[in-house]
């Protein structure tokens, strides 16, 4: 295989975009382990004046990811995130006005490998979210696992993510007078194992907890489809029934998160590496589904609203797929 190297005369802006995405990928893959290593180092070499105050504070701060987090407007405004957004680039598209007097659940699809579209649009100040949805604040919910790692949790919370636990979602949706959005990647870790280019498989049939939360809090449901999310990486072939898929699913059940064997391009060449491809991401926010608050919803009410949500999600995909190069015969596969 002939390696295709990047030309030497690439503009500085594109090099900075590559550097921004590289640090994001490395942070996702390695920063938690590095932070844990720092704590272990401090303990082994008895830097008690550093780790004892931090661990004491951590004990009292443990619930913060379930209580709205601790976002930093300064961190969300780092210039590096502008370069991150422009690398792909990432676009946020509104199809309907949202009334800030309501709370909302954004169902984000598909998961993709690293959920770049959700991060770029809802965890930085460089998408046009504030202009498109004035008066609303978005909270991206991620696995509680990430908030259990000392030091790393502080960095993660600074850009806005909070836990995806039931208590955390309830906290966001309980805001009096509305104005909050829970952004939930509904397919979860399981769906990332099907994040292959050209595939549109969504794990949603058994995901009904978000519907119950919407009914309990009277939060409007909004389907969101991120076109291009599955095009950023390739995965080692892992069809249903293969030994690799069986191992991945087993690990996912044990650890709570999946391990897709992904690859794409490198830093200085285009043939192999862990850098995502430069593929545009268009995150389209659909029509809100009105929800009347029902403190104790019945299974029938949950099922009815869940079906309505899937119908709206499919409609959103069908209405916009042609704009983003998806063939007419392609459609969503619900699992």
From TrEMBL:
<dbReference type="GO" id="GO:0006651">
    <property type="term" value="P:diacylglycerol biosynthetic process"/>
</dbReference>
<dbReference type="InterPro" id="IPR007130">
    <property type="entry name" value="DAGAT"/>
</dbReference>
<comment type="pathway">
    <text>Glycerolipid metabolism; triacylglycerol biosynthesis.</text>
</comment>
<comment type="similarity">
    <text>Belongs to the diacylglycerol acyltransferase family.</text>
</comment>
<dbReference type="GO" id="GO:0006071">
    <property type="term" value="P:glycerol metabolic process"/>
</dbReference>
<dbReference type="Pfam" id="PF03982">
    <property type="entry name" value="DAGAT"/>
</dbReference>
<keyword id="KW-0812">Transmembrane</keyword>
<dbReference type="GO" id="GO:0019432">
    <property type="term" value="P:triglyceride biosynthetic process"/>
</dbReference>
<dbReference type="GO" id="GO:0004144">
    <property type="term" value="F:diacylglycerol O-acyltransferase activity"/>
</dbReference>
<keyword id="KW-0319">Glycerol metabolism</keyword>
<keyword id="KW-0443">Lipid metabolism</keyword>
<keyword id="KW-0808">Transferase</keyword>
<dbReference type="GO" id="GO:0005789">
    <property type="term" value="C:endoplasmic reticulum membrane"/>
</dbReference>
<keyword id="KW-0256">Endoplasmic reticulum</keyword>
<keyword id="KW-0472">Membrane</keyword>
<keyword id="KW-0444">Lipid biosynthesis</keyword>
<keyword id="KW-0325">Glycoprotein</keyword>
<protein>
    <recommendedName>
        <fullName>Acyltransferase</fullName>
        <ecNumber>2.3.1.-</ecNumber>
    </recommendedName>
</protein>
<feature type="transmembrane region" description="Helical">
    <location>
        <begin position="21"/>
        <end position="48"/>
    </location>
</feature>
<keyword id="KW-1133">Transmembrane helix</keyword>
<keyword id="KW-0012">Acyltransferase</keyword>
<dbReference type="GO" id="GO:0003846">
    <property type="term" value="F:2-acylglycerol O-acyltransferase activity"/>
</dbReference>
<comment type="pathway">
    <text>Lipid metabolism.</text>
</comment>
């Amino acid at each position: 295989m002939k390696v295709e190297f990047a030309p030497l005369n690439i503009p500085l802006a594109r090099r900075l975009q590559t550097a921004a995405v590289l640090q994001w990928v490395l942070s996702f893959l390695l920063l938690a382990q590095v932070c844990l290593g720092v704590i272990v180092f401090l303990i082994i070499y008895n830097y008690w004046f550093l780790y004892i105050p931090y661990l004491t504070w951590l004990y009292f701060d443990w619930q913060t990811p379930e209580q709205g987090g601790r976002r930093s407007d300064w961190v969300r405004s780092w210039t590096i995130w502008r370069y991150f957004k422009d690398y792909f680039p990432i676009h946020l598209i509104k199809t309907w006005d949202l009334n800030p007097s309501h709370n909302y659940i954004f169902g984000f699809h598909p998961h993709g490998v690293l959920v770049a579209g959700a991060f770029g649009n809802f965890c930085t100040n460089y998408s046009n979210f504030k202009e498109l949805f004035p008066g609303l604040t978005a909270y991206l919910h991620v696995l509680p696992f990430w908030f259990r790692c000392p030091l790393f949790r502080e960095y993660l919370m600074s850009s806005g993510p909070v836990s995806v636990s039931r208590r955390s979602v309830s906290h966001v949706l309980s805001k009096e007078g509305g104005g909050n959005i829970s952004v939930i990647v509904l397919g979860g870790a399981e769906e990332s194992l099907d994040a292959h280019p050209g595939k549109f498989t969504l794990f949603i049939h058994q995901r009904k907890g978000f519907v119950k939360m919407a009914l309990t809090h009277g939060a409007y449901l909004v389907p969101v489809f991120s076109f291009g999310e599955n095009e950023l990486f390739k995965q080692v072939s892992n069809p249903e029934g293969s030994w690799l898929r069986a191992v991945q699913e087993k690990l996912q059940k044990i650890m709570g998160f999946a391990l897709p064997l992904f690859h794409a391009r490198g830093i200085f060449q285009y043939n192999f590496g862990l850098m995502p491809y430069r593929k545009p991401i268009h995150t389209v926010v659909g029509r809100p589904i009105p929800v009347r608050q029902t403190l104790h919803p019945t299974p029938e009410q949950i099922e009815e609203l869940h079906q309505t949500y899937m119908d709206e999600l499919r409609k959103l995909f069908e209405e916009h797929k042609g704009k983003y190069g998806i063939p007419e015969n392609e459609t969503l596969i619900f699992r």
